[in-house]
């Protein structure tokens, strides 16, 4: 089942003591997209999420699911139609992994056999080995537990997935793996995902759209991440995006348009004539590759002429970027990390396509900015 | 002339193993009183503890009940009930049940309160009703602690059920009360050893029940 459209109409949550957690929030959450709610603590983002599955009831306003008020159906039926993932996964410690995942199908009256078969299918989808199915949650790592949490939320194939800071308790490496996995699953399943986080990097990385909330539960801006980074609505959003917003924006600019120089690249077994012919003006180095075309490092032409290069004595080439699929941010990163100031572009198999200077990357950034004034927000996502 | 000698010679006497005052009869009576008292106390304490624990209300009242329960002298209550109600099982059951309810009630309440709140949140968010949350999530997760409460109640009942003999009922207390009256210390020591043995068996039974009903996922350390 694909996603559903969620529409919040001037929703307010006021507690009996007068605190306003969410203030007249209107938000259209499109289907088949990841909408990220982000903001400082106390901005009402979790409350907003919890109003969608009625864990919190709004004081005013209404929430529509595919055009129908969510109060029109029994609360437990509504919740079973929305996957729910929380921080630390909230797995049932007394149930095995398979039975945890089978929870909602069982609530919906599926037979045990069918629910377990479905659970096994989902374990594969979220990248968990089938052998973990009979373990108990305490026997899993934090990242594995979180994967089980996602599988459990997806078990009954709900159109909507609500995720409340699901990845904030795991370490950065595991978190990146989980984020990649979520994007991959979303490509396959096309759910309506509402994702709460306090981490703007996570929001920008995952969101089709990012809704920034400010303290007191008011919406500051809701836009695709590239647009958010390019044109923050006000000082609060700009401040919240952080100091390196410009660099992060480059994640949304493709590297495919960069003009590559192919000449300053030689293989380890090249001849003296090739070395002499290929030394480029303004670049006192040549990039040496192995016989398969994979980068080894930078060497000075004079040293290379003296004999076969010793790979250990070449200058490091930084991290190569994949031409076309990586962003300008990756290209710039490669250039900054390289002692020569030049980045190495490779194809999908890691073979060198050419090299590009910081200066050329800078020009590409400038022309992208010029183009963005007319077409803000129209950039396609590029994997960062 | 030591206690062990008394115990061995009491238990070794074949005459003590038959008849209406024989060990099997007294043991069966003792177990019957204990089981009845435990069942009644659990019937009161478990539902009350589960409900108050689930809804998180009534903790102060429970603390009061627990303190009052511990302060009540079982023996005094027994005599009072015997005077009020006369001969029978009821005056014995009242002090035993009153003794056992507080540990069951309070431990069950505390056990449910100790269940990780996000767990209950996740259950509710997935569309479980309150009864399901209580019976399928909170109860199994809190079960090791709840069994602990039942176990201490059971051991207290087994040792205290000896006082039934004081108001002319049976059970292992018979040997102790009669032995003291007859100055037959062999009988006293034998009866006391049997009560202690039964308490140990009770602990073993609870250990086995725990192995059987507690999920391996929550058994660690408990």
3D architecture notes:
The complex is a heterodimer of chains A (384) and B (222). Chain A has 384 residues and is an alpha/beta fold. In chain A, the strands form four sheets. Chain A has a six-stranded mixed sheet with strand order 6-7-8-3-9-10, sandwiched between helices. In chain A, strands 2-1-4-5 form a four-stranded antiparallel sheet, with helices on one face. Chain A has a three-stranded mixed sheet with strand order 11-12-13. In chain A, strand 9 (209-214) and strand 10 (218-223) form a beta hairpin. Chain A is built from 15 helices and 16 strands. The relative contact order of chain A is 0.11. Chain B has one domain: MetI-like fold, CATH 1.10.3720.10. Helix content of chain B is 79%, strand content 0%. Chain B is built from ten helices and no strands. Chain B has helices at 3-12, 23-55, 59-71, 74-85, 90-113, 117-125, 130-160, 173-182, 185-213, 216-219. The chains are: A alpha/beta (384), B mainly alpha (222). The interface between A and B is medium-sized, with 28 and 22 residues.
